[in-house]
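go over this chain:
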Amino acid sequence: MESTLQYIFNLIIIAEFMLGNLSNGFIVLINCIDWVNKRKLSLVDQILIILAISRIGLIWEIFVNWFATLYYPALYVAATELRLFIVAWVVAYHFSLWLATILSVFYLLKIATFSSPTFLYLQWRVKKVILTILLGSLIFLILNLIQMNTHVQDWIAGYERNTTWNFKTSDFATFTQLTLFTMTMFTVMPFTVALIAFLLLIFSLWKHLQKMQLSFKGHRDPRTRAHINALKTVILFLLLYATFFLSFLISWIAETNQAKLVHTFCQTIGIIYPSIHSFVLILGNSKLRQACLWVAAKVWAIR
């Protein structure tokens, strides 16, 4: 029974891996084609391109981690490979999270309607706000890399001193706890920012609907539709990311306790975030949605 479940989870991970690369690759391809044709790229398209690239990296990291856990566990005790894996993981994880958060802030500044002078100031300087957040997040990235490198050095030094199985398991458990603490610490800020953007969008929509309550337009009003579409994108990001983080947490614990089936199941759940949310972004963007429908129509016609 366990081997059957393992086989099913493996197939699901491979399918999600392919879909994730397809969806994020589609975002990069369409925007790059548009960039070449128009010789310019909007701010949101620039964010989407970098976000999609970072998610491709994150998907590959999850896939490699799954493969290494099952078939090549020695990866975690090889100094060079472990350092490369950790650096690639931290960078992909950082930009995938922060750029999705920046996208939430972009939707808030572009769609929400508040009369606050501070909000209007930020709204008029949306590009500078986005750039400031992105550059500011690099501080967290550098600190995260330094912290993770310290954990890796401690783990490798401990393994080189004593390579017995009991010590290795205990030391890896300590390394896991430190890793989880570090990743959690550097996750709180962007997740909180995205949550605040979501709540402000809800408040802005509520105020807008109050103004429109005597109108017959209802949900056909363009600004109302823009609010609702942005809210769908942000709330799905928050839900999918929360699922991803919980699966990441359980996965590391399962890996420490050599529970490979639980680890694989968590990997199956975790890869949904960088794969499925990209489809949400495609459907929420008119240019990407039209391109996707065009491709689907061509594929259907060929069949």
